[in-house]
Write a structure and sequence with these properties.
The complex is a heterodimer of chains A (394) and B (224). With 394 residues, chain A is α+β, with helices and mostly antiparallel strands. Chain A contains 13 helices and 12 strands. Chain A has 2 domains: 184 residues, no CATH class; 172 residues, no CATH class. In chain A, helix 2 runs antiparallel to helix 9, helix 2 packs antiparallel against helix 12 and helix 3 packs antiparallel against helix 8. The longest helix of chain A is centred in the last third of the chain and has 44 residues. Chain A is elongated, with a radius of gyration of 32 Å. The mean pLDDT of chain A is 88. In chain B, the strands form 2 sheets. Chain B has a 6-stranded mixed beta sheet, sandwiched between helices. Chain B has a 4-stranded antiparallel beta sheet with strand order 2-1-4-5, covered by helices on one side. The chains are: A alpha+beta (394), B alpha/beta (224).
């Protein structure tokens, strides 16, 4: 029997039972759609995070106390601004080093208030991280050295406290202490689950006085060139360990952060896809079941085909193609459905989704494989039917 | 090689039913020459259907030798047996066994599918064969649009489309009224006159009487 003819016969058989064929396909449709949509969401999220981490600025080296290993307890920082100066000398350029001391504080303007993340920073922050102002100016070196009580508001904080009014020059209080607004940031959105528009930047010296400490939480370095970034990290960690022998320090690059996040998201996406794959498996069992029913219903037809010269293989191939046609049609429908769902989610919700060709190709391939795997038993049964018994069936 | 269409020598066929051996044929010897016209008669349970299945290459003897078209059935693989059925034997059944969703033309062309013949040629040959059985005007009709006699003609056209040397008809008139049955028999006889050997299985003595010779079966044996 020619292959084209076998396809035609399979198509005819499926058309003859349209509703049943559709219902049988449904399991595969849902399974494939779920795989495609979930992989798209996983991929989209990963791409968004990568963009955000890269958006922090290039050649970034983040230095924190403690060991960056799973299960390590957070270490309280022994670092002070003197350490930042020491690091600046290693880097050779003060403008490439940023520090931070962060604390959640209530920020008030008149009767309005917001709970914001206060960040005590150096004036170098915009040249180390990518931060753009929408209004006013950033902190100056004098602001930092004199501990002047001035603040730059994140877009979210500015909107909460001042609405559409210009906040520049106005008074606010942070943790009960008066500050003057000198600038606002451009909107940034969420990054790694943190609302980056909810930050308030003040001179690190002012923040330290407010918090009653001379410590800093950590520092970040924008390395002059990518090739030396690992060496720089080693040097900085060595210098800091020399100054604080009791404490471990770690320096991580963007690539390392991305690598860790990518691994986590990859595993997560894989798990989601595997769960969706289970529904594909269930769909396959449905296909197998219906094919067995179909073989039984068409016993007479099988008997007749054998009587006029069909070989066992011809019959098996016919039923196998029927199963494959069912699942691949379901696979294509599922791909369309999953892709539409992913695009809808991307357009209508904050969750990003990115369609990937490999996930669609994989889902299609798997649906064809499901057809073959779950069609083999019914097809073999059909091929082995004794024509004498088959013809006698009423 | 012999010129006989069928040579059966001491053929037996025993079925296993729930562990019991049930003999359906208990030693049948029979020769059907090329172009012969033989009627096999017997009551139900006499073994005539079993014999028919063996002669059609749908089943194999438990013992004895059976030559179809000069080839020993026992020595053939399932694929070779399928090819033998396709090329040398045409079946006509009491209940027609047509594919219900398929036109008369494509029903007739079905055996050619398993010869790897393309659709265009299949349809041409099927149309010619339908014309031969007097159904040129029914080519695109489906079985449910045809009368019983017409359906049996389609089935006969299907049996003939591969140019077989042997036509096996199992109660071909059993589901038809007597006038229609007569015309089907007349058609079979005209085919026989063209050189196709016909073996007709029937329990109807009147039908059997029209054959060149009769084989009477009882309890799995030929008794006359």
């Amino acid at each position: 029997m020619r292959v084209a003819e076998a396809w035609r016969v399979a198509l005819d058989a499926l058309r003859a039972n349209r509703l049943r064929s559709l219902l049988t396909m449904l399991g595969v449709v849902i399974g494939v759609a779920a795989v495609v949509a979930l992989v798209a969401i996983g991929t989209g999220t990963k791409q968004q995070i990568e963009r955000q981490v890269e958006g922090l600025g290039s050649n970034l080296l983040i230095v924190v106390p403690g060991k960056l290993t799973a299960g390590a307890a957070p270490t309280s920082s022994p670092m002070t601004l003197d350490d930042a100066d020491a690091v600046s000398r290693i880097v050779g350029d003060r403008s490439r080093v940023a520090v931070t001391i962060a604390s959640g504080e209530t920020v008030r303007a008149g009767k309005l208030s917001a709970f914001a993340s206060m960040q005590g920073v150096l004036e170098t922050t915009p040249s180390v991280f990518v931060r753009k102002l929408s209004r006013g100016a950033y902190l100056t070196r004098t602001d930092v050295s004199t501990g002047r009580r001035v603040a730059v508001l994140g877009a979210g904080v500015a909107r909460t406290l001042f609405g559409d009014r210009d906040p520049i020059g106005r008074q606010i209080t942070i943790g009960g202490v008066r500050f003057r607004v000198i600038g606002t940031f451009e909107q940034l959105g969420q990054s790694l689950g943190v609302d980056r528009d909810n930050e308030v930047h003040v001179p690190v010296t002012a923040a330290q006085r407010l918090l009653g400490t001379d410590r800093i939480d950590g520092l970040a370095i924008r390395a002059p060139d990518r090739d030396r970034i690992d060496q720089l990290g080693t040097d900085v960690v060595a210098a800091l360990t020399g100054r604080h022998p009791d404490t471990d320090f770690s320096a991580v690059t963007q690539e390392q952060i991305l690598g860790v996040l990518g691994d986590i998201l990859g595993v997560l996406t894989g798990v989601l896809a595997a769960i969706a794959g289970i529904s594909l498996l269930v769909g396959g069992v449905g296909v197998s079941n219906i094919m067995l029913v179909s073989v039984r219903e068409r016993t007479r037809e099988i008997g007749l085909r054998k009587a006029v010269g069909a070989r066992p293989r011809d019959i098996s191939v016919q039923f196998l193609l029927e199963a494959v046609l069912l699942t691949t049609t379901g696979g294509v429908l599922g791909m369309l459905l999953g892709a539409s769902a992913a695009l809808l989610v991307d357009a209508l919700s904050p969750v990003p989704a990115a369609l990937t060709w490999w996930s669609m190709a994989l889902a299609f391939g798997v649906s064809a494989a499901v057809g073959i795997i779950f069609g083999v038993v019914p097809a073999q049964r059909a091929g082995r039917l004794d024509p004498v018994v088959a013809l006698r069936t009423e | 090689m012999t010129s006989a269409a069928i040579v059966a020598t001491d053929v037996t066929r025993t079925y296993q039913l729930d562990g019991f051996a049930v003999p359906a044929l208990r030693g049948v010897s029979l020769t059907v020459e090329a172009g012969d016209y033989v009627a096999v008669v017997g009551t139900s349970g006499s073994g005539k259907s079993t014999l028919m299945h063996l002669l059609g290459g749908l089943d194999r003897p438990t013992s004895g030798t059976l030559l179809l078209g000069g080839r020993d059935v026992a020595a053939l693989t399932p694929n070779e047996l399928a090819e033998l059925r396709n090329s040398t034997i045409g079946f006509v059944f009491q209940s027609f066994h047509l594919l219900t969703r398929t036109t008369a033309q494509d029903n007739v062309g079905l055996p050619l599918v398993y010869r790897g013949i393309g659709r265009r040629e299949r349809r041409a040959r099927a149309a010619a064969m339908l014309e031969r059985v007097g159904l040129a005007h029914r080519i695109t009709h489906r079985p449910n649009q045809l009368s019983g006699g017409e359906q049996q003609r389609v089935a006969i056209a299907r049996a003939l489309v591969t140019g077989p040397s042997l036509l096996l008809a199992d109660e071909p008139t059993g589901n038809l009224d007597s006038a229609t049955g007569q015309s089907i028999l007349a058609l079979l006889e005209s085919l026989n006159a063209d050189g196709v050997a016909v073996v007709l299985v029937t329990h109807d003595r009147e039908v059997a009487a029209r054959a060149r010779r009769q084989i009477v079966m009882r309890d799995g044996l030929i008794v006359g």
